[in-house]
Give the backbone structure.
Amino acid sequence: MTSQALLAPPAVFQLAPPYDRFEAVPDAAAFTPGDLPDAALLAIGAGAPPDGWGDLAALVAELRARFPAAPVVLRLAQPADDGEADWDRRAGELGARAVVFDGEPPRPRLLRTLTDATALPEQIGAWLRLRLPGLPPAVRGLIDEIVRLSPRFGEVGPLLGSIGHAERTARTWFRRAGTPGPGKWLATAHAVRAALRMQAESAAPLLTLAVECGYSDHSSLSRQSLRLFGVRPGAIRRTLGWEWLLDRWLRRAGL
């Protein structure tokens, strides 16, 4: 059943690439994931930055659960003070990925926040608990570790060995859970990190980014992006965030 939180203000908007114009969602309760363009965001228009954000928590959680491919952000009136740096932290406590303010172009602030990989393991872990709620805790924990350790390992065997797990056992757990194997999760974690670099540094040569992200050349990165996500680097560079890519990969895997 749809929560009543979606039937009342605050307003909900969609923001699709190139992320320069909000489009109101007239009936959020009837809105479906199929109505969203690829790589679109959902923005909750909350007016002035509130003193207490409790009323927004239910709506953020509802939208995140219903639209896993779309980062949820808050759209606020410009604050009167200079305390903008605190708003992203406060939004994060609600599960929102960023804050944008009326009166300024949304893309620059979204670019800075949605391509930041600093908290990627925690963000993906929380997202997976909504996207794949039935995963056994042992498998979920291993996926968390794979994402966390992915910058340090190119092969999944040594990664699993570093945390005391045998690769054969891990593959069995993942197969029984009906999810892609640990090696595929590692390859996808690498590709997601590369995607964030491509988005954040859209003017940088693709070859440079590919090599810095651990690929042999730009063709290798392009093939991997196409194989995992069904899109090429050029399309990824025009978008923001990893949610739509990871959701796409899971759907292509039948999940």
Observations:
- The radius of gyration is 19 Å.
- The beta strands are 11-15, 23-24, 41-47, 72-76, 98-101.
- Residues 120-252 form a domain with the Arc Repressor Mutant, subunit A fold (CATH 1.10.10.60).
- The longest strand covers residues 41-47.
